[in-house]
Amino acid sequence: MSKLSFSHSWVLITGASSGLGAEFAKQLGHRGANLILSARSVDKLGRLASDLAKVNGIETRVVVADLATPEGVDQLTADVDRLGVPLLHVINNAGFGSTGAFVTSNAETERRMLRLNAEAIVAVTRHFLPRLIARAEGGFIQVASTAGFQPTPFMATYGATKAFVLSFTLALAEELRGTGVRALGLCPGPVPTGFQQAAGIPASGLLKLSRLEAPEVVDTALGAYEDGRTLVVPGALNSVQTTAVKFLPRALVSRAARLAMRGLGRS
Ligand SMILES: NC(=O)c1ccc[n+]([C@@H]2O[C@H](COP(=O)([O-])OP(=O)(O)OC[C@H]3O[C@@H](n4cnc5c(N)ncnc54)[C@H](OP(=O)(O)O)[C@@H]3O)[C@@H](O)[C@H]2O)c1
Hints:
The chain is an alpha/beta fold. The chain has helices at residues 19-30, 42-56, 70-83, 107-135, 156-175, 195-199, 214-226, 236-247, 250-261, and strands at 10-14, 34-39, 60-64, 87-92, 139-143, 182-186, 231-232.
């Protein structure tokens, strides 16, 4: 895999209005990348885009889209195409979770989660992949989670979407071997962002020992992407946890996960 420089290359970041997405934007802006920032919050995106352009002398564009709907995904890809810029890297980061017993979950929220966390990533990747293969460069950072390594009772749908992203990305990375195009699955553990509030996770519920801050997670992810890796789990404790579950019986891992997550069950 050739050496990678983000300078002057165009990067699309979904979920760029807060948390990990905004941090990707800051660190990539600092490295001289031109940015297409997408999410639903037009004001936040506009502020971030103009701040980053001023500080780093880069070009920025904003594309507002609700990626939990098929129409929103089509709108994103069409708007990005209309910009006419040579897009080289895509960070499929937008996502959310929900907590509680599945039986009491909001059916529409779970459906939107499936569409945003899984379906949108497939559609966006499928749309932009051919042109990257034609150029034999660029690639995708797909944001999964340590939750994708084992079932996550009381976040059942969320964990399943992240297992999907992980499996999809590792398969894609193998298909892309030798094409010059990268695919990295990023699996963060707990990171304090807007995620916890959106998912209904109490601040005290953030696993303190395995918690990392967004700048460290993003820096680790960009380093792994530059190195051409296909999977990265930032943080030593998260690496140990995701490695250990591979060697234990699935039923035992599911039971342990239920105990660890039981505080999130509100039924
Ligand atoms: N924080 C963690 O502990 C953690 C751990 C593992 C994995 N992750 C993953 O990291 C990714 C980023 O999450 P985060 O932690 O940075 O949380 P966050 O601060 O809540 O950011 C989520 C981003 O996704 C966007 N988004 C939400 N719904 C959307 C929709 N329907 N259409 C388009 N964009 C939408 C949000 O923007 P708008 O509201 O403006 O649309 C926001 O920019 C997610 O995929 C999450 O699952 C997070």
